[in-house]
Batch of 4 targets.
Target 1
Amino acid sequence: MAARVLTVQAIERLKPDAARRLEIPDATLPGLYFIIQPSGAKSWAVRYRHGGRTRKLTLGAYPALDLAKARTDGRAALHAVPLGQDPVAERKIVAPLPTRDLVGSVIESFIERHVKPRNRPRTAEETIRILRTKVLPAWDDRKIQDIGRRDVIELLDGIVDAGTPVAANRTRAALSKLFNWATDRGVIDANPCVRIKAPAAETRRDRVLSDDELRLLWRGPKPRRPDGGDRAPRRRDLPTLRHQAGRG
């Protein structure tokens, strides 16, 4: 993608691409990139070469790390490279994060200890898919204790903006279960999803009656004829009966 002079207004207008991650180079500071995940999560990173390899240093999530601070931090990292320093390696040495507190680690523990053993296979598979495709790309290397209400709202807004509002609803439900589980185990103090409503309204789907329900309808009260008499239900009555059952 071509470099552009990034401004606060330009950044706010950028939208996610549901099919791929976007990396927008900053023309003001070569090497600085504004990254937008398909989920809508946004962050800053710098790319440089060290020891013959391309390296990527994630600076932080947007908007917690704004444009001005991203350029300041990015410039400091890039200026260290010609001096023989590797900002990625130095960050790992100086500030290692406890692995068990990272969102990615907590999610995998949640999957193994709760999702798989306590859900039907199909439900477990869908929950795992949501957590790994919608949540991990945005929060994988963050401490779960640092995830707040605003982070959740911004993640869900990004999914809605990507054109998948129902997926945002499912992500909110999966996150709420994850945070409840983490709260019960003492990993976090409170669930940041509390009082966050489903982002999108959903239309109730029609339901096909089961064989048992159809048999009960056939055995139930007989419909009355126009003249007031009783008659057995006929095949052409089934659409009406299905409609009546759906309203019950």
Target 2
Amino acid sequence: MNEQKTPSAIDLKALFDKSRLAYAQLFNLYYAGLCGFAERIIGDGHAEDIVEDVFLKLWEGGTRFESELHLKAFLYRSVKNGCLNLVKMSGRAQNRNQIFYAERVEQETSVLHEITRAEVIRELYLAVDELPPQARRIIKLTYLDGKTNQEAADDMGLSIQTIKNQKMRGLSILKKKLPGDKFTLLILLPYIDLLWQTDLQTRS
């Protein structure tokens, strides 16, 4: 019996043969996670440019990958190197927070941590994107973007009670769709990022 691929699997042979469909699938699967990874190193000013450059080089390079894990490692390593090169070349390493984080991501354990985080965030976004429109936007604002209920209400022109009701509706759906650990991460995400930023400030 032939083994069936999961819907998210990348056809590595088609990618090597420069299939536009395989390339588009790869881009859709990894672009958001790679941008998030780059933003944590250099901020959002050049993150998309670096990620797009990595995808362009991948298309032009014709590298053959043994597995999707090998491909994923290549993508994240290339983005990491692009970010560090930008920091060094632009003189932005004068910022002590960037120096600390640049040194941190040079370590393999840190890179693996960031890859895991970025991939989990990508899975959360995919799950949130399947919510009803209003609940989806409220969950993105209050959990993924870190806004308060009041800020979300102001942005959307809704009452606080509507925000709370739609948030509970969205969370109820996500709790059924996401594994327990990923659902917990969604709830804690704003606090995790706040602690991470505070840690950087105390070390600078």
Target 3
Amino acid sequence: PRRGAVVLAAGSARAALVVDEVLSEQEALVRALGPRVRRARHVSAAAVLPDGRLSLLLNPLSLVRAAGGRPSASLFPTPAAQRTRRRVVLADDSPTTRALEQNILEGAGYEVVACADGAEAWERLQALGADALVLDVEMPRMDGFSLTEAVRASPRFSRLPVVLVTARGKPEDRARGLQVGASAYLVKSAFDPTSLLETLRRLL
């Protein structure tokens, strides 16, 4: 299929970013990322599109530096080739964080089922199944700890990898997460897309 390219400039440096398709050029209301996700690689802000959807904005300077003048560069790490796409159920009540993590996972080749809270994630998991769960802890209706306990108590999903990605970084919170059965516990204040992808790769 025919693809397009977007030329990025940062000072005197230039880089061409290959894209599947150039959809449009439009103005948008830009919002700064919160401190929990500010370290996300190559992402500088979020924008609310005219139709109400949330979109992440890439940082041109970061992308140009990552390309480093090489003819071809992989800006986002991807997992080894897989025969079928792995499905990840993702739950976070923050639209910005959810969109960020969904983009990271989809960019790495995963099929993502995004949910706004733990109860929705539990419903979607039972209906669709999944290869892994990526969960926030503090969510309405059903929090990440409770959902992890439900997963571990289920004969069908008891061995499913569960990654908690949360702002709660105290030792007692981490201990609680591991106690209820989380496979990994990542703190948002030190969030790095590479750590999330490497954690999933290790667990799968």
Target 4
Amino acid sequence: MQLPAQYRQLIECFDALPGIGPRAAARMAQHVLEHDSGERLQQAILTARRTLQHCCCCRTYSDLSICPLCTDDERSALHLLVVSGVEDQFRWEEAGYRGGYFVLHGLLSPVAGIGPRQLHLPDLKQRVETLVSAAESSSAENLLVKVVLESSVEADATGQFIEDMLAGFACRVQLLTPGQLAVDLQHARSFSAADHVPAGADK
């Protein structure tokens, strides 16, 4: 049986999404054709593509040129967290991280044609240079850049490239796994809680 070209094209579009195989793509195509959610999905995609942009500082998605996180003066300017995707940013924000971000939207992959410019690593370098200059002018401690990526060949190569790229700056660079950062944040919360224990509360 020859499926209509429009239906095949719809399946191919879903199949091209990360983590979606042919069978799941076919089920999704059938669902959007049989339910009203298909029109809602179409409208949501069009609206998002029309109104969202990359924050000029951290490159997360925002409807403003600079996202609210980057304009929050209460966040630490001495900590910068480099992550591969916006979902990672959400994860660490929920975990209590309160510094700056830089979202790569991917990993280095020469086979896929993804190099430093595709990940906007020159923008990361410029961001670090700006933060280092601000820290030096205020006589503050050195900037700490934490690169937190899932373990893979591409992630290891990306982390190493960033570490080498920032080697000439007055900043510390740590290459961490998500598990290591989770432990760091847990320790930070423990110290913060201890600082707020009233005097004599342990007597």
